[in-house]
Amino acid sequence: MGRTDFNTTPNWRATVLLSASMPFALAAGTGGQYTAEYLKQRELGLALDHPITDPPQEVQTPNAADDLSKVRSVLGLSVTDLANCLGVSRQAIYNWQAGAEIKAANAAKLEGLNRAVETLESVQIRLTPILAARRLPGGQSLREVISSGGDVGQAVTVLVGMLRNESVRRAELAKRFVGRRPLDSHDDAPPVSDD
User: Fold this and answer.
1) Residue 1: which residues within 8 A CB-CB, separation 6 or more?
2) Whether the Cβ atoms of residue 143 and residue 133 lie closer than 8 Å to each other
3) Are 136 and 155 in contact (CB under 8 A)?
4) In whole angstroms, what is the distance from residue 99 CA to residue 91 CA?
5) Can you name the residues that pair with 135 across neighbouring β-strands?
6) What does the CA dihedral 146, 148, 151, 154 come to, rounded to 10 degrees?
7) How far apart are CA 173 and CA 181, in angstroms?
8) Angle made by CA atoms 131, 136, 141, in degrees to the nearest 5
């Protein structure tokens, strides 16, 4: 009688059913892939019985107030300058900042300004007052183009191109003058007489 007969143990049917269904129950958390690797990870406590999901990220869509603020700060514009550039009143700018709806034509102009700002940011150029006052081909500065309501995106593209060309020229000159010694301050001074 060294052998246990399943028929004589209480709940023998439950034991047989449980042992037969155990592999399927373990596979449920694997997405149906009951593998040796999964069992190994499960023994080490590394396997998860549920899929990992990232919490839903709230997508923040920029609104007009954010765009206006960004454009004003990067381009260094006053409300009056921005209003002139967009061809609207100062009150319209204040209303938009407060959440008022923008007409499609004005939204397109604001989007153009926003693209100009993104161009400056993408090439990591900080618009200083000197750069804003710098003359572009055609004679206007970026500040004047903005104030007159001209094509700011085109003006920024031209300014970035000018700055890139100058950077290349500076690098070429630096290579050319490698190894030359700088002038000492007394080398260019007029000769002193012995009198």
Assistant:
1) none
2) yes
3) yes
4) 12
5) 141
6) -60
7) 14
8) 55
Q: Which residues contact 102 (CB under 8 A, 6 or more apart)?
A: 64, 96, 110
C-alpha dist (Å) from residue 31 to 9, 18, 19, 42, 164: 35, 21, 21, 14, 54
CA distances, 172 to each of 176, 179, 182 (Å)? 6, 14, 17
For residue 105 the two structure tokens come to 């034509």
The string of DSSP codes covering 94-148 is HHHHTT----HHHHHHHHHHHHHHHHHHHTT----HHHHHSBPTTS-BHHHHHHH
Amino acid at 174: A
User: Model-level pTM greater than 0.90?
Assistant: no
Question: How do the pLDDT tens digits run along the chain, 195 residues long?
Answer: 455 555 555 555 555 554 555 555 555 555 555 666 666 666 665 545 544 455 555 544 567 888 888 888 888 888 988 888 888 999 999 999 998 888 888 888 888 888 888 888 888 888 888 888 889 998 998 888 877 778 888 888 999 999 999 989 999 998 888 888 777 666 566 666 665
Find all residues with CB under 8 Å of 74, minimum gap 6, and list them. 117, 120, 121, 127
Residue with tokens 């618009």: 127
Using only C-alpha atoms, the chain has a radius of gyration, in whole angstroms, of: 36
